[in-house]
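ugh ok fine here u go
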Amino acid sequence: MIEIIPAIDIIDGKCVRLSQGDYEQKKVYNENPLEVAKMFESVGIKRLHLVDLDGAKAKHIVNYKVLERIATNTTLTIDFGGGLKSDDDLRIAFECGAKMVTGGSVAVKDRETFLSWIAKFGSDRIILGADVKDKKIAVGGWLETTNLELFPFVEKYKEEGINKIICTDISKDGMLAGPSIELYKEILQEFPDLYLIASGGVSSMNDIEQLQEANVPAVITGKAIYEGKIKLNELSSFLS
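structure:
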């Protein structure tokens, strides 16, 4: 059964969504992220993907108080990302209740630090963030595309023990136009034992069903829920 992981993206302490990673295309869905998290918890959801978009821009953790409030007042298993660049950022995230953290830009720009996190905390608590555009890695809250190819990038970190990745196709994110199913099939063909978390473009229950048929282990969905394209009670068959 595919694991459903709702996303809460934070700017100025509020629950927002961007389109294609563009900070100018921001829509506020709720002033109170804890309220949203409790809504997810109430229907049986266990996991939450919490993204500090202010942190991604600032290059250090910013919205840790939001993380702390959600972790303290729900039983959700939270993976936290956005702006984690230093050991201190990681310490704050874990102290504030994150069970896992996602490193994207840091894995590209400071490999030594990212490898030290894997060694210190174990690969179960460190998720590789692989944000892609045309199979090239993007960083900095998607503000910058690199020349790094997706597959060699993942391969190198798999060799270092990474077993979970969140792969977001930026061109799909927030567009409600369907996920990059063919890309995910390619990734799983290359790395069959990878715990691949698909992200970006989910617009309907049909998309989730197609990802499950493609044997994708987990999916992050945000905007489709906030826009009412997916009703929370529809997810119940995936939450057993």
